[in-house]
Structure formats: C-alpha cells, structure tokens
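Q: What changes when 2-phosphoglycolic acid is included in the input?
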Amino acid sequence: MRRPFVVGNWKMNTDRDGAVALARAVASNAQDATAEVVVCPPFPWIVSIAESVDRNTLRIGAQDCSQNDDGAFTGDVSAAMLSTWCDLVLVGHSERRTIHGETDETVSAKLRAALDHDLHAVLCVGEQMQDRKAGKAASVVTSQLDSAFALSGGSGASGTVTIAYEPVWAIGTDAAATPGDALEMANVIRAWLRDQDPATADTTRILYGGSVSDRNASDLMAVDQIDGLLVGSASLDAAIFGRIIAAVSGS
Ligand code: PGA
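A: The predicted holo structure follows.
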C-alpha cells in the first residue's frame, strides 16, 4: 500500500514571516489528510518552520543538498546538516540540472549522501521537449534512473526514495502533461523499478510534477501508478495547496 504523497516546492520564494505563516496554514490543512504532506522551503526558513509546526503533521524537506559531508564547499549545505531539521530532500530537480549544471554523476552522489544521512530522497527525473519529440522520453528517463542509482545500488529505491516524474517542458509553463502522458511515463518508471528489485518495486511511490494546480490535481491523481504530486507555484498559496492536498488524499 503506497500512501498518497504531496510535496510543495517553494523554490526561492517567501520571506521569513510569510514562510512561517504559509507552513502553519499548510499544517492546518494537512491535519486530517490521509496524504503525507511535505513542504520544501528555502534553506534559511527551515529551522523557523521546523520549530513552528508539528512535523508529524507536516514534514519538512530541503530543495537540494551537497554531495559532500563537510569541508571547503562555499555556499553548500550538507545532507548531514539538513538531517537535523528535515525529513526529506529533493535530488536532481531540473532547475538544478539545467541552471546549476548538475550532471547525472552529481545527482547520483547527492542521492547517496541523502540516503547515507537517513533523509528520504525525492529523485526528480524528466525529459526535455526535444527528447519527447524525438521519441526519446522513456530512454532519457530510464537513463537518468540508471545513473542516479549508480552509486547507491540499483535497488536503493525501496522505502527511502520516491521518484518524481517531472517533464521539463511542463514545469512552470501552465501546461501539465496529459494524464495519458503521465501514465505512459509512470509505467516506464514502475517497469524500471521492477527490473531492479521486484520485491520492493511496488512499495516505491511515483509522483507527477509540472504545472500541477487545484484544477488538474484530481485528474492526475486518477492516473494508475501515480501516487502523489510535486507542486511548485501552486504550493505558495495555502488555499490552493489545501485543495491539492484534498485531491491527493482522495477527499
Ligand atoms: P510548477 O513546478 O508546479 O511551478 O510547474 C514544479 C516543480 O518545479 O517541481
């Protein structure tokens, strides 16, 4: 049984007071939800939020972590540091891959660092539009999965990793994937998981992300093999995110 899962990625938005207020409002909406609810605030607000909400109701995630534990890495934050305040970390988000030039090797090292420090990892994979047009969506995603798990073992997905399918062309565009496209790719990811470890493949959750809103959340959640949603801009409004939490919870 895979518990429905909804993650709000705030990216580089909010100020301190707004972040704490938003987290409290989300926690209140999450109170009776059957879904597991997580928010990923910017690094500087993580501690204030962790001290302001009940982490059994609202889990806290980071948007990124370093692959290194400590040392001369100016500006980086390690998984070890995050594990004090966070339950989870996003790894390999497309904005990290494209804007910050993270390679598949870096993503793999970050995934291993997260798992080494007992952070649940949400590994983001997804193709660019030119890959999709060239019929390469499935092969790009399976190759990202192969590379990401290269350092932590092909079966490392069980229990501690969630896979987020986020087609790059759908992120921040108001043009989410259709349920049909989401189904096709979720099936590709489930098949990959089964190839790695049939015993645990069906316990790993698969999320969809990319222009999720309160208007399309129910349709995306109706897709077989989609266990939850990774939400960017719509997670910055507590009322909208509250409706998405309800849709993911099936209520
Ligand atoms: P979006 O972002 O919902 O604003 O498209 C999703 C994401 O980047 O995780």
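Observations recorded in class: Residues 14 and 234 are 13 Å apart (CA to CA).
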